[in-house]
Amino acid sequence: MASDVTVIGAGAIGIVSALMLRREGHRVTVIDRQAPGEGASFGNAGSLAPSSIVPIALPGTIRQVPKWLRDPLGPLTLSWQQLPKMLPWFLHFNRACGEDRARRAATLLRAMNTPSIEGYAELLAEAGASDLLRRQGMLHVYRREASFNGSAFGRELRRDNGCEFEIVDADRIHALAPGLSKEYRYGFFLPDNAHLAGPGNVVKALAAHLQRIGGVIEQAEVTAIRGAGQGVTLEVGGRTRQADIVVLAAGHASGRFAAQVGTHVPLAPERGYHIQIPGAEPGLHCPVTDGEGRFVATPMAGGLRFAGTSEFQAAGAPPNWDRAEILAKQAKSMFPGLEVKNYSRWMGVRPSTPDSAPVIGRSPRHPGVLFAFGHGHWGLMAAPATGRIVSDLVAGRTPKIDPAPFSADRFGWF
Ligand SMILES: Cc1cc2nc3c(=O)[nH]c(=O)nc-3n(C[C@H](O)[C@H](O)[C@H](O)COP(=O)(O)OP(=O)(O)OC[C@H]3O[C@@H](n4cnc5c(N)ncnc54)[C@H](O)[C@@H]3O)c2cc1C
What we know:
alpha/beta; D-Amino Acid Oxidase, Chain A, domain 2; nine-stranded mixed beta sheet; globular
């Protein structure tokens, strides 16, 4: 039976979910205060990595935090003013750093990320934008042997979950990434990974396709959401409207709306940055991750993008462009021959849970509200799996990927 479904959020999660629902005949309206693909989904590193299954919370992560915070070029910063507000999140994060929990998170990420490449291949073919999908693998590199050895647990998680990878020596690294600094001598290559050469444009192309097949996209701000009997009431742009089902895919803003329907979820605004150098072509075919600096260089259709860093700061605080300038310094150090100039800068907000797993499924207190948020570092790649779970739940089918581990109630005392 066709339902009236309203999706809040036109990022990768909202648009892919909306497309999958519309293909099944539902009447779908997506509401976003911005144009599609302008949130976190715009400026990310573009990786679609079935092997990207290593959670952020790992045994030993907490020990590294003071070192990262002291390093001005380090991958992590924290607004001390925000600390009291984020303390419960960090307590959950600390709990997630146990080995068993990390293994469990890796298995969940494997389930969510495995359908990413074929999922996008199918949707992009329908949307006439297949050229944005590049199946060229992904390289992880390190300068120091100790750092490479320090990432052994991540490779163990990959091996245990059936991810293919090849340990590469210095010659192979520089054959795969010719302009790379010769200081990088250790690494591994993930052949079954791919990337989107313009994630924002991918979301926009899919949004245009959604409209062609009868979906509606409205630009308006949602201010409140309330469960109303079997249906849902929304306040949108000063007006009240009803829907049979609402899919909450508002990225980092989703926590506020989940609370309005009675569920409190630890969701941190984990801000990241990119710089993109137009026309830069250091001979790179696949994305390259610097495992020590924790950033990714991705060849995009519009230039070479360097993306990364974690900044725990209020989502609405002004960007700290020094974080982007750090990426510019790292770009030069990674590719010494590269002219790092005329680059654009971007800041986006990851919707991050402490255990690296998203929140997907029916709201525990209002069955008309479906949660689809909290994808942290993996939201672009996890969108096809999320869309499938959402469309299965709307249709009343048992989802192929069990959503139980993604329940909003798993955080217990939060
Ligand atoms: C630097 C960086 C690199 C990354 N690299 C990767 C990567 O390589 N691969 C990967 O898979 N992931 C990556 N990510 C993570 C990924 O970008 C996110 O997980 C993903 O974009 C989240 O998608 P989303 O649709 O949930 O959120 P968003 O794209 O942020 O979309 C949410 C939408 O909700 C709208 N919204 C919010 N509140 C309201 C409201 N009140 N009314 C109306 N609309 C509202 C917003 O305007 C926005 O458009 C990266 C993130 C960063 C920051």
